[in-house]
Amino acid sequence: MTAAAMTRPTQASPWATAGRVFEHRARQYRRLYRASLFGSFGIPALFLTAMGFGLGTYVDRTPDTVLAGVSYVQFLAPGLLAASLMQTASFEATYPILGGLQWNRIFHAMAATPLEGRDVALGNIAWITLRLTLVGTIFAAVIVAFGATRSWLIVFAVPVAVLTGLAFATPIMAFTATQRTPDKFAQIFRFGLTPLFLFSGTFFPIESLPTFLQPVAWLSPLWHGVAVVRALMLGTIGDQPLLAAVHILVLLAITFGGALLAIRTIRERLKRG
Amino acid sequence: MTALRITPLFAFGSRRSLHMIERNLLVYRHGWLMLLSGFFEPLFYLLSIGFGLGKLVGDVNGPGGQLISYTLFVAPALLAASSMNGAISESTFNFFFKLNYDKTFASILTTPMSPADIALGELGWALMRGALYTVGFIAVMFVLGLVRSPLIFLTLPGALLIGFAFAAVGMAATSFMRSWQDFDLIQLVILPMFLFSGTFFPLDAMPDAVRLLIQLTPLYHGVELLRELSLGVVGPDILVHVGYLAAMGLLGFTVVAGRLDKLLLK
Amino acid sequence: MSEQRVAGTAPLIQARGLTKRFGTFTAVDAVDFDVQPGEAFGFLGPNGAGKTSTMRMIGCTSPISDGTLLVLGMDPRTEGAKIRGRLGVVPQQDTLDNELTVRENLIIYGRYFGFSRPECARRADELLEFVQLTDRGKDLVEPLSGGMKRRLTIARSLINEPDLMLLDEPTTGLDPQARHLVWDRLYRLKQRGVTLVLTTHYMDEAEQLCDRLVVMDKAKIVAEGSPRQLIERYSTREVAEFRFPAGVQETLDGQFEGLGSRIEKLPDRVLAYADDGEAVVIAARERGLHPETVLVRRSTLEDVFLRLTGRSLIE
Questions:
Q1: CB under 8 Å to C206, separation ≥6 — which residues?
Q2: Considering the domain C236-298 in this protein, what is its CATH number?
Q3: Helix, strand or coil, per DSSP, at residue C262
Q4: pLDDT digits (tens, 9 = 90+) for A225-252
Q5: Which of B31, B57, B184 sits opposite A59 (nearest CB)?
Q6: CB C138, CB C101: distance < 8 Å
Q7: Span C13-228: which CATH code?
Q8: Is C289 helix (H, G, I), strand (E, B) or coil?
Q9: CB burial class (10 A; 0-12, 13-18, 19+) of residue C8?
Q10: A223 vs chain B: nearest CA distance in angstroms?
Q11: B54-86 per-position pLDDT tens digit
Q12: Residues pairing with C296 in the sheet
């Protein structure tokens, strides 16, 4: 303690206050990044090798009509990119958020300062956005190294994949704020994300699904994301630009709706303690 | 056997280990959905990879070299992989959590139950769940017309053997773990096995050296075992598969038996 | 509570040279003590004194490093399971099964001892009554208050009708009301003849519950006796506490000499030990000392501990 009086900061903008929450998450992560390196580089490389090239050998030698001359690894890579960001985003929106609200209660500590629920929600969403961008960029680099993209438009595929992840992160975060134990998370992953991962056009076009199931895939944010990411990486985005725009709008709507909801549920949670 | 000091399974724990299973049954009464979810996961994979992707792949070489549909090829492999994954998640992640964070084991140890009772009970429970899922999976294979041989029923003990082998080694590995970070190592071992053990595509396209390496790993033997049984194409090599997995399980268990007391009774 | 009480005066616990080492660190250093049937026996000491390690050795969940230990006449090294079958253990931190309900916690715990299911259910209902949790029986453990969880842990430890109860800091972290409720239940058990062994760093708890206690400090036992005996032996009847304005106490060197039979200077106050505290206060005024506040009180175990170790119990 010094004798000189502290200069008190003046009222900050919402950008700045959410930024402080973001800074907290980023500092936490600096201790852990090494552990997630294997996940970021290794898992994409393993999946692309096994499914793209290993299984791809068998797919590519069968005459087919659905893939329309695209090699399987090129078909699969965009699906894996979007799906992997879905999984990262969903993880980040569950356990770490519940941790701050329930286990170490650090978000409650933040709410005892000039920060409030909106800052906690937006700061965390900002952090997840950065995290997804990192994971997505590394994944895209692995894809390029494997020669599994046809178009330089992969540069734009990363932000679309990040948006796909956010369309999962924000509503799940809103749900997390209503929970006190992680019990329901495993169910989200097993009954929600696993089927989406498997049936959203990641591994095969949804045209291969029974006809009555195809409209169900339209409900999957992942399907919208995969469609645009794939069109970008195959360089076919110009074929149906309007459809791509609709996909993007759907993802944006879910992300914003989820964010508004997350602000509300986190605020309520912080009030209730 | 005695020269190797391999602890016989049931001399190691006692009948009290059944109380662990009773406890887990009580827990799952509150969340039966969770119990059920272990059945749906391989089913989702079968429908997606087996049927959806199967349309793109066509026929592949099965055991004995005959051409079979991709769905028939991948179904038993998915069962083997899910037996491995279930056993590993139960014996590593969940076991570590109960060991170090959740104080459940600590309270149980203040009763006449011993660390060996706990380990055996937890293993028994993991296998019981595995058995439930396997029966479910076989039933689904029936419904989807994927059954080619009456030997399919032997995939049940086969899947349990895979579960036992991985759970025992998983527990042994967990007994050396110090922090959550160490679990990345388990991922590092499990994921490549999951993807490359002849699970999703035959090994015939692989270079010889890689194929030989894969044939030394446990999931390969698990996948081959279940594939041969489910298709009814059984040769003498099945003894190698069974022997490999049984030896792996017993070895893991010997290590666990030696370390659990030290770990739990500090 | 139990029919099969150990006959005569054979101690329920007998420790000679009992030692616990973790690597090079010695947590318990060659302690000797006996616990007699029916008594309430306490380990008093600050955190890190070795109380919990001693309790865990008695509870047969921690192997002894050296010396001998007999619990209920048996050796924990060879008959751990048999001993644990007759103990009731309340650990320092609640180890309740968070995945089960309140009532299920009791029932499954009884099953670990090998009691039949109907027997466990009957005991569970009785014990819920005893710890006043009957109406929470169907709830999960998680939302219970700290005091309720503590009472549930105590009920759980009674499911096997133990001959000997081990309570490690039974009321640490509870609010005063919850503490008194726990004390009341433990007192009832004591009246029923259950032998209690407890650790605490609260002197009021030791005074309330213990017939006899040992004071532990730095892995060793430094004194033994009833609370009254210890106070008589190591302290005076009364204590006068003087508090001075910030910075003044340091300037008063030597001015307390001869006030009472002993002087202790703590960072925030000066204690003068004497059989007549009022007389000390008058004497201090005559010397021209002007404390901000003065308090005369009876000696407690806190004073005993200060005398024995030169430190206070709660740091």
A1: C42, C44, C200, C213, C227, C301
A2: 3.30.70
A3: strand
A4: 999 999 999 999 999 999 999 999 999 9
A5: B57
A6: yes
A7: 3.40.50.300
A8: coil
A9: exposed
A10: 14
A11: 988 989 988 888 899 999 999 999 999 999 999
A12: C240
